[in-house]
Amino acid sequence: MAKHTNPGFDPAEIEQLKLECQEAGKPFVYFEDELNDEPDNVEEFVHIQFVGEYNKQEVIYDAVLYTLRLHHCSLVFEAAEKKVKNSYPSYIPQEERDASYVPNEEFEEEIDMFIAELIDEMEENEEVKVAEHLEIDPDFDYGIGLDVCLNVEEISEEVVEKFVAEFLSGSFKLDPTLYSFKSEDED
Predict the structure, then answer these.
(1) Could you tell me the pTM of the whole model?
(2) H or E element: which one contains 148?
(3) Using one digit for the tens of pLDDT, what is the confidence trace for 79-133?
(4) DSSP H helical segments within 45-147, as ranges?
(5) Taking the CA atoms of the chain, what radius of gyration do you get in angstroms?
(6) 79-104 exposure pattern, b = at least 16 Cβ within 10 A, e = fewer
(7) 101 partner at 20 to 30 Å CA-CA among 40, 75, 131, 158?
(8) How many CB atoms lie within 10 A of CB 69?
(9) 36-48 burial, b if ≥16 CB within 10 A, otherwise e?
């Protein structure tokens, strides 16, 4: 078997992360990226790293934890965008636009209103239901990737500590219940 080239399996990297965790006084460290630094807002998403075992080998876990509400919201938005594409073939979703895109304000406004209506309708009819999930990506580019969706109001430090402790001890359990949410802001 070929030696791992994934730096998340490198003993020196693992020792470095253990030191960082020790200095922080926690079993994990926050991975600094732009989505984590919103101190005034409720954290619906955090990116962390911690040391654990995978296939009897010490490894760095690179994990994103986010709320079920955030997951639901993005799935509803994606579904609404798909419906918009069917009704307005010339519509180009935000993430597909490039530098050559020239917005048409009137068209954009019409689309925004249509998306808002579709979202309201989908939420009202509870068309999208979500459950907690944990996806493990052993082919991640740095250690082992974890995608963790939890049914909590916010991803607080207590939530993260509880998840890491339960994950490392093998006692972490997912809630299989399906949930649907409604948007909080009525504007």
Answers:
(1) 0.83
(2) strand 144-150
(3) 999 999 998 888 888 888 888 888 888 988 999 999 999 999 999 999 999 999 9
(4) 68-87, 105-124
(5) 20
(6) ebbeebeeeeeebeeeeeeeeeeeee
(7) 75
(8) 21
(9) eeeeeeebbbbbb
Q: Whole-angstrom Cα distance, residue 151 to residue 97? A: 33
Angle, helices 68-87/105-124, rounded to nearest 10 degrees: 130
Tokens 């939530």 locate to 159
Identify the H or E element spanning 57: strand 57-67
Task: Using DSSP bridges, classify how beta strands 29-30 and 144-150 pair: parallel, antiparallel or unpaired.
Answer: unpaired
Closest CA to 24 of 6, 51, 42, 45: 51
In whole angstroms, give the CA distance from residue 88 to residue 83: 9
Tokens of 131: 């459950």
| CB 180, CB 128: distance < 8 Å | yes
Q: Which residue has the higher pLDDT, 184 or 93?
A: 93
The residue count of the chain comes to 187
Write the pLDDT tens digit of every residue in 38-87.
455 568 999 999 999 999 999 999 999 999 999 999 999 999 999 999 98
What amino acid is encoded at 108 in this protein? E
User: 41 with 58: CB under 8 angstroms?
Assistant: no
